[in-house]
Amino acid sequence: MTIQLEVRGAGKHHPSGWALRDCDLTVDPSTVTALIGPNGAGKSTLMAAAAGLTSLTTGEILVNGRRVVRAMPPELGYLAQDTPLYRRWRVADMVDQTADLNTRWDAPHAARLIDEAGIDPDTRVGTLSGGQRTRLALALVLGKRPALVLLDEPLADLDPLARLQVQQTLMTEVATTGMTVLMSSHILGDVQDTCDDLVLLQDGRVTLRGPVDVLISRHRLLTGPPADPAALGWLKAPDVVEIRSSLRQTTVLVSAPPPGLPAGWTDQPATLDEIVIARLRATTQPGHTQEGAA
Amino acid sequence: MTYPQVEEVTPPVSENRSSRSRMRRAAWRQHRAWVLGSLGLAGAGAVLLVLVLVFSSSCVQWGEPGASCRTEPGYTLWKLLVAAMTVVPPLVGVILGAVTFGPDVEHRTQVYALTQGVSRMQWWAAKVAVTAAPVFLAVLALGTGTLLYVDSADESVRDWLGRLTTPGFDALGIVPAAHFLVAYAAAATAALMWRTVGGIVAGLLISGLALIGGSFLQPLVVPHDRVLVPVEAWLADETGELAGGIDTAYHSSGFAGSDGKDIDVSSLNCGGLDWSECLIANVTYRAESYVSDSRYLPMMAVIGGINLVVSGAFLGLGALTLRRRDL
């Protein structure tokens, strides 16, 4: 089953301000999209709104063309950041409960995922490690065989090995079922390995989005002799993401390679870390050039 | 930017019976310990009622010449039952209501439940039905059983209790169950907003108000009977018996003229007459009003009904709160 998630002009206003504003986004079927951004950028708000847990102040979120309003469409799965489960229950009870609550439930699949995570069904949920709890919660989400899963920082509590296993589980699921994934994460290395598309949220707005490989191939890191920013007129202003100067050199991150480089300048590909961090710095530090949303 | 019109299909409108029964099973799995504990308390009340029946039967001959009558431990057990029937149902309602939703709010497990293909109203209704309905029915059965016992018991047992007044009124018939439901509804709704402790505090306050308010309302919701006794006869009567008999309540008295209208005797000018002579000279009747026992069932129906309406209002507020809130 293919599914599309569309966010149109989404905004969420709290008494303290806008958590999400003018957010437009499309998650295509059978893709893995990473939602990244600093704490408070609006990632969890967007996820919760897509899951029908939070209402929007403006705009709308559509799943296969149907508006989500305070109820999660049955074809979606949602894993909350804090993995809320009944801590005093046994794992087996948690599985039975989830099976009862869902019309679609693949019990062998859920049991296999729990077994792969090394979780004893007779264990109390509260005694599981953070990583095991996340993997249990993920198994409960995937047991529904959702067409689209929303994963709110699923990798945050996991050790490197568990993170790899969860990524492999997700990738296998996507490859075998065509499942669509929207996941928020702070771990950019995992995003680069796992995700097809990237969406950067800052202050509740989308400031960058696109296929990960395209973003990486387009962004270039130019290094040259120390120079006043005013002397960099050969760069197209809209392409400049960030300029950093030191006594020894000037480094410029651009979103499109310039046609030619002056003498003394070198051009190398930028990593995803460099791209994202430069964009985050550009909005928080005055004096840096920032490009608009891609 | 303008967007094309879209279809809005949520929350789910078609809920078949099997999905409802699955949700009830899930709610039962979550709350069965509390529900069974509450039903156990109702069972203990039933055992107490049986003990009262057993031990008070020795008083059937009370008052007849030569009869031996033993009032204990029946009387003590009866007082215990009445106290328990007055206090325990609201307390159980408060705790049960608070734990039905409070822990889900505290541990955010409502997010787990509401992301499992269950609508908010389905989740709320199943939890309320599974936790409140069996306990309500058990308390209703116990209250009805206690009322039937009182109705059929010897007068000596009925002497122990005025069923028109608190605490007897609050221990019989539909009233304990209605008090349970008010406490449950208030605590459940408050717990949705302010977690378990908030639910318990609000539930205690509301159920206390319901008990106190009910005792004020009881005499106001049924008509009073009024009897006029010629003032000479009243002055001559030394028995001190209540007008209307022992099963009456909410007595008030005064004096009336020959037309039956009340006369304020504090403003009488008695001159040199003593009080009795003055009364005979100025008033015709001693007027006594009271609520007779025949008003008991209407009183119970009205007070019980008010409690049920209040419960419904709290439950409705809870459903609305859940429907509109961000989780």
Q: Please provide the ordered H/E string of secondary-structure elements of chain B.
A: EHHHHHHHEHEEHEH
Residue windows where pLDDT falls under 50 for at least 5 positions of chain B: 7-16
The amount of helix of chain A comes to: 25-40%
Question: Any idea how many domains of chain A?
Answer: 2
Question: Per DSSP, what share of the residues of chain B sits in E-state strands of 2 or more residues?
Answer: 5-15%
Helix and strand sequence of chain A = EEEHEEEHHHEHEHEEHEEEEH
Structural class of chain A: alpha/beta
Adjacency order of strands in the biggest sheet of chain B: 2-5-3-4
Indicate the multimeric state.
Answer: heterodimer
End-to-end C-alpha gap of chain B: 29 Å
CATH class wording of the largest domain in chain A: Alpha Beta
Query: What fraction, in percent, of the residue positions of chain B are helical?
Result: 55-70%
Which fold name fills CATH's third level, the topology of the largest domain in chain A?
Answer: Rossmann fold
Number of helices of chain B: 10
CATH architecture field of the largest domain in chain A: 3-Layer(aba) Sandwich
Report on this structure.
The complex is a heterodimer of chains A (294) and B (327). By secondary structure, chain A is an alpha/beta fold. Chain A folds into two domains: 5-210, 3-Layer(aba) Sandwich (Rossmann fold); 219-284, no CATH class. Chain A has helices spanning 43-50, 91-101, 107-116, 130-142, 160-177, 188-194, 212-218, 272-284, and strands at residues 5-14, 17-27, 32-36, 58-63, 66-67, 76-79, 148-152, 180-184, 197-202, 205-211, 220-224, 240-245, 250-254, 266-269. In chain A, the strands form three sheets. A six-stranded mixed β-sheet of chain A has the order 6-7-8-3-9-10, with helices on both faces. Chain A is elongated, with a radius of gyration of 21 Å. In chain B, helix 7 (175-217) crosses helix 10. Chain B is elongated and about 85 Å long. Chain B has two domains: 17-220 and 297-324, no CATH class; 225-295, no CATH class. Chain B is of the alpha+beta class. Classes of the chains: A alpha/beta (294), B alpha+beta (327). The A-B interface holds A 8-9, 24, 48, 51-55, 60, 62, 65-74, 76-78, 80, 82, 84-87, 93, 96-98, 100-104, 144 and B 1, 3, 6-12, 19, 22-23, 25-26, 29-30, 107-120, 323-324, 326-327.
